[in-house]
Design brief:
The complex is a heterodimer of chains A (136) and B (41). With 136 residues, chain A is of the alpha+beta class. Chain A has helices at 2-10, 14-19, 32-41, 56-60, 67-71, 73-82, 124-135; strands at 23-28, 49-51, 99-103, 111-114. The chains are: A alpha+beta (136), B mainly beta (41).
């Protein structure tokens, strides 16, 4: 449900990212079939969703992966808030956490958020502020 | 300043149609926002 919450709550801001001139990629650990179902279920339209079942990009982005990040008490508290985004069958790696990066054409990373536990998401206001800085 | 490692740029991802894409191609000409989600559940 955390992944649903994260994407559904960011969806209204996608146009701001496009207008700022940034490319957008939403990357998950499931299969293309599951990604397509995810898009359709959440009515996300043509959001650019990609799949990395081998988790190589997650590892390269230094994102956390462990049962400890799932069982963290803070994840349970976040779960109560996210319950309206009903959990479906886990379609990917349950122990893999997410994050947000901005990468410039010169390869620099001006923004790098690493989720510490399940449900630990970057604030959309922070992401959008960083998007504007990267576009400047 | 932190730099994207080659392993990130060279990562091969599939789109929803199963077509492969090199992640680094996204930021070739303009900045890219990468949002990693846990899974698609």
């Amino acid at each position: 449900m955390f992944c649903r919450q994260q994407v559904a709550e960011f969806r209204p801001h996608v146009d701001e990212v496009k207008q700022a001139g940034l490319e957008l990629a939403i990357i998950g650990s499931g299969t293309p079939h599951f990604a397509k179902a995810f898009l359709e279920d959440l009515k996300l339209g043509d959001l650019p969703v990609y799949c990395d079942q081998e988790l190589k990009s997650f590892a390269a982005a230094e994102l956390r992966r462990s049962w400890g990040t799932v069982l963290d008490p803070r994840a349970l508290a976040k779960g109560l808030v996210a319950m309206k985004y009903k959990q479906k069958k886990t379609m990917g790696d349950a122990t893999q956490q997410g994050g947000v990066l901005i990468v410039r054409p010169d390869g620099t990373i001006p923004y790098h958020f690493v989720s510490r536990f399940a449900g630990d998401h970057a604030k959309n206001a922070t992401i959008l502020a960083e998007v504007k800085k990267a576009a400047a | 300043m932190e730099y994207a490692p080659d392993a990130l740029a060279d990562a091969q991802l599939l789109d929803v149609e199963g077509q492969p894409h090199r992640l680094g191609d996204l930021w070739k000409s303009r900045p890219a926002l990468l949002m990693f989600v846990r899974h698609f559940g």
